[in-house]
Amino acid sequence: GAGVSQSPSNKVTEKGKDVELRCDPISGHTALYWYRQRLGQGLEFLIYFQGNSAPDKSGLPSDRFSAERTGESVSTLTIQRTQQEDSAVYLCASSRVGYSNQPQHFGDGTRLSIL
Amino acid sequence: RKEVEQDPGPFNVPEGATVAFNCTYSNSASQSFFWYRQDCRKEPKLLMSVYSSGNEDGRFTAQLNRASQYISLLIRDSKLSDSATYLCVVNIGPTKTSYDKVIFGPGTSLSVIP
């Protein structure tokens, strides 16, 4: 079946612009995660959605970052007034809910470059 | 102390060598454990889950020691294709603020040399 799909694959934009990144999870996966990975660094947790529960936003680095998810489907991560420090790969992952032994499955990521 | 810590690496080993990666976690309530691998400029991919009794998948063996809060990954007969960053992943499970809490370690880089 289809895996986690992210778009766009690459995004280059000017400092100060807003960007929107999209994630389509695996069908039936109710948990969805966003991560940021800067070049040569580890994964940085941003936000977690679980069904209709309130999302865990504890990883969002500033109020310029926000994310939405409609039901158990597509999620969008929005970065407002982008800064050069936002340049990174943004990874989305999904997993089944209800079983903590279920692993996450990642999309290919969106490579964001802020000029 | 970080919630998940790994050997800092990098590990440079010759083909055919056996290499072991270590990982420690701080939350004794952690419920499930995984090893992922991440190739350069690629997304992380699940390598194997880690079970309490230990488990093996071909050349790869994972072990868990709950008392010591320690996880290991052993790779036997290393191949050039094993070169990647290996990520230790711990799922704490439900917390007060989150239904699920997955923590990725910083990763250990492995280079297998011809």
Description:
The complex is a heterodimer of chains A (115) and B (114). Chain A is mainly β. Chain A contains no helices and 10 strands. In chain A, the strands form 2 sheets. In chain A, strands 2, 4, 5, 8, 9 and 10 form a 6-stranded mixed sheet that branches. In chain A, strands 1-3-7-6 form a 4-stranded antiparallel sheet, with no helix packed on it. Chain A starts with a strand and ends with a strand. Chain B has 114 residues and is an all-beta fold. Helices cover 0% and strands 52% of the residues of chain B. Chain B contains no helices and 11 strands. Chain B has strands spanning 4-6, 11-14, 19-25, 32-38, 45-50, 55-57, 60-65, 70-75, 84-91, 102-104, 108-113. In chain B, strand 7 (60-65) and strand 8 (70-75) form a beta hairpin. The N and C termini of chain B lie far apart (37 Å). Chain A binds chain B through residues 31, 33, 35, 42-43, 45, 48, 50-51, 53, 56, 58, 91, 95, 97, 100-101, 103-109, and chain B through 31-32, 34, 42-46, 49, 87, 89, 91, 93-94, 97-107.
